[in-house]
Request: fold
Amino acid sequence: MSAAFHPDAAMLLTYAAGSLDEATSLMMATHATFCPECRAQVAAAETVGGLVLDDLPPDRMAEGALGALMRQIEEEPDQPATPRAAHPVGLGLPAPLAPYVKTRSDGIAWNWLAPGVKQTLLFEGPDVRVRMLQIAAGKPMPHHRHAAFEFTLVLKGAYHDESGQFGVGDFITADVGVSHQPVAADQGCTCLIMSGAPMQLTSRLGRLINPFMPF
Reply:
């Protein structure tokens, strides 16, 4: 079943051009594993980009550029290759997540966030975090608002909130100021989330603990 909600066309084009940051590229690549429609758009954009490059006249290299490059290669110390993480066996996650998922002997290295809600951090940059969130069957997330953008991709199960129902492969964009309370469906829900700032809990107790929220 194909996704019903997708990244916008401009984001897919930028991804196809190889110009997105690592975190957003991870979101796009993972969504594309579920969505044949977006895979086709990316493939078409890559094909067009290749044809454009083929038609461009070659640039002349600066005098001595090749020799300078060869000297730089020779002077560069050898670095041992860092092995790429193998896809965690039996976890049933999309392949693009493999290098990012932290595991323990019993599976994914989940951390408690709230009753019925677990999370694990996959990527952290200066202004962005990517994490996986797992919500138990029928459980709600704490009601919260967004202080920055948030992208959500449903990996397993489904959830609903004030704006609708979302299933596997759906890519949802939440803008600054969105306030909602996601609730997992009967089969539970696992999501990949990219956010530009920690969520802000809206309850009286939540407002007290907001300064200590890691996400």
Remarks:
- Residues 81-89 have pLDDT under 50 and may be disordered.
